[in-house]
Every structure is written in C-alpha cells, then in structure tokens.
Design brief:
Elements: H1 42-45, H2 47-77, E1 83-86, E2 90-93, H3 94-120, H4 138-154, H5 161-173, H6 176-181, E3 204-206, E4 223-228, H7 238-245, E5 247-251, H8 260-265, E6 270-274, E7 286-288, E8 293-295, E9 302-304, E10 310-313, E11 322-323, E12 325-327, E13 333-335
Antiparallel strand pairs: 1-2, 3-4, 4-5, 5-6, 6-11, 7-8, 8-9, 9-10, 12-13
Helix pairs in contact: 2-3, 2-5
C-alpha cells in the first residue's frame, strides 16, 4: 500500500519544531512521516502504578544486594572441594555453583532493575533533532545542558528516593564480590619466604634413593641432590617445601675451596648449596667438575661452588645460599640449621 492509499485522517498530524513533518502528496510520496504521536503509559497517568513500578525496581536492587551478600557468604562458608547434585547437570562443585548463581543473579537484577526503571518511569518521549556541526556553538551547548537537566528531572531520581537509595546500595555493595576474589591469592606470606624446613639435626636424604647420605656416599667431583629428612613426595605441601629446600651437594678438595666461610660450613670438603637459582627460581642441574661451576639451564646464570657460589656470569643477582652441614652420631650428613638467607630470587621485602 502506498502513502496515497492511506486515509488523510490517519496521516501524522503536524508536530512541533522537534518533530516537524510534511504530508505526502503526488509530488513527494516519500515525505518524512515524522514521529508517531506519543502514547502515555499507565505510570504516566496513574501514580499508584508508578509507585508499583518503583517498588519493583527497588525490590530488584535490594535482591541484588542480598545476592552479593550471598556471594561473599558462599565464598567464605562453602568448602572448595564440596560437590552437590543439580538436575539435569549432575554432580558439580558446590562452591562454583553458588558463586556463579549469586554473582550472575546480582548482575542480572541490577540490569533488570535499570531496564524496568527506564521503561516504566523515565520519560519515553521521542525527540527528533537536526544534525549540527561537530563543534557546537554556545547556544547548542546551552541547549544540551538544559536537555540534560530536563532528563535528570524527568528520571525522577531526586523524587524517587527509594529507587535512588536502593540503586546506590546495590552498586556500592556489588564491587565487594571482586574484593572477595582476592582471597584466592592466599594468605600473606609473612616470613615464609625467608625460611625453609631445614633445621638443626635434619638428615640429608638422597633425592634418588630416598636414603640418608653418608660422607662416603659423596665422591669428589660428583653432584648429588638432596632433600630434608621427613619430606615425602606424597605430602600435600611437598612441592611448596621442596621449591625452597632443594639442595645440591658437591665434594671438593678442601684446598680448592677459596671462600673461608664456605670451608667452615662444609664437612671434609662436602658443601651444600641451594639448588634454586637466584634469578627466577629455576632448578640448577648442570655441573662442570674441572671448574667447579654450576649452570642454570634457564638463563645460563653460572655460579662458582669453590668460591661461595658467587655469580660469575648471567642475570642472577646474588650467590646461592649455603647450608651448614655436619655429621650425626650415626655417621649421616645432617643440617646444622636453616639457610642464613632467603633462597631463590630476590624480593622487595629482603631489604
């Protein structure tokens, strides 16, 4: 059907300056029909309906706050290894299910509240405006500010205090969900990075045989890896502890040891140094017998085990920490204490 077939009484009536129209005729059958006449919503003419919409929006924002509180409570209270059955999904992690349900619900209810507010209470009058240059003249700027003030007034944010307060509450409380996620970073390290499980009397156990080491087990020029007595691979904290306590043992001729303290902390030329590179924490595993150098395979940091394990090449920042060792009454190699400095890479708290 063409516009010529439309009864004249059904054509858009003349509108104001914002929505000026021209009536279609034979010369211009595709004239701009303009904006349709505005139809009032029930909330525009019935304050009771507006109050109902206000309460619905406030309820959605309040529900968002409750869901955010539920998210935080779930994060704290539900064990991370608990499983539940949810039809038709099956068995799933209870914590993940609760976090997803509450976080998604909190976001959805904020969005649903905002949409319902806009569709039922904010002004829905359509306004057509002429295009203008990018650089607005002063009168246009003044008009924009006036329109903004009108829009703010029509939104009834100042008058609908219940909506305003519950919206602010939902938006203020929801970011706490993100703060709670920081809990996954774990507890503060405290002094854990400065200490290992080595202590006086702990035997040096061969990593390959899982047996305590005697001085006779370490030949001159050999490289042996050791762990503390009592640390087993089946332990829950094994990886965490071995990452700090891993030890490499080398036997040198006492006359070849240049560093005085290294010689004092050794036993019959057997020296024990941290296996963890002081650059980025890679395990050191390459030993050159003739030069007494050990090489980190990651970034080629090289340490001289005959001179206090000082750095002679590469990006490592400081020497490998040495563990003072001795022999127990049963004739096994034992630690005489912990490392005297933190093992591995430097960190800002070392000072």
């Amino acid at each position: 059907m063409s516009s010529q077939d439309i009864p004249e009484e059904n054509l858009p009536a003349e509108q104001d300056a914002h929505g000026a129209v021209s009536v279609a005729d034979e010369n211009d059958p595709f004239a701009d029909p303009g904006l349709p006449p505005h139809e009032h919503r029930v909330q525009d003419i019935d304050e009771r309906a507006a109050k109902r919409s206000e309460r619905v929006v406030a309820f959605l924002f309040t529900l968002s706050m409750l869901l955010t509180v539920g998210f935080i409570a779930s994060y704290v209270a539900i064990p991370h290894d608990k499983a539940i059955f949810v039809f038709p999904i099956g068995h799933i992690n209870a914590l993940n299910f609760a976090l997803g349900l509450t976080l998604g619900g909190a976001l959805f209810t904020i969005g649903a509240g905002a949409v319902h507010w806009a569709r039922t209470l904010m002004s829905d009058v359509e306004i057509a405006d002429e295009r203008h240059a990018i650089e607005a003249p002063p009168e246009v700027k003044a008009k924009v500010m006036a329109d903004f003030k009108d829009g703010a007034k029509e939104s009834a944010l100042g008058r609908r205090k219940l909506i305003r307060n519950t919206m602010f509450g939902a938006l203020a409380l929801f970011p706490l969900s993100g703060v709670m996620l920081l809990r996954d970073l774990g507890p503060l390290p405290g002094t854990k990075l400065r200490h290992t499980i080595w202590s006086k009397g702990k035997l040096l156990v061969n990593m390959n045989t899982n047996l305590p080491l005697r001085p006779s087990d370490v030949a001159v020029g050999s490289l042996t890896f050791a762990k503390p007595e009592g640390l087993e691979e089946t332990d829950e904290e094994f990886q965490t502890e071995i990452a700090k306590a891993a030890l490499m043992i080398v036997r040198l001729q006492p006359e070849n040891i240049k560093d005085k303290r290294e010689l004092e902390w050794a036993h019959e030329g057997i020296v024990a140094f941290s296996k963890i590179c002081t650059h980025v924490g890679c395990p050191i595993s390459l030993y050159e017998q003739q030069t007494h150098h050990v090489l980190c395979p990651c970034h080629q940091s090289t340490f001289d085990l005959s001179d206090g394990a000082r750095v002679i090449f590469g990006p490592a920042g400081h020497a490998l920490p040495q563990l003072r060792i001795g022999v127990s009454d049963e004739g096994y190699l034992e630690a005489l204490g912990d490392f005297d400095e933190p093992v591995g890479p430097a960190f800002w708290e070392r000072g």
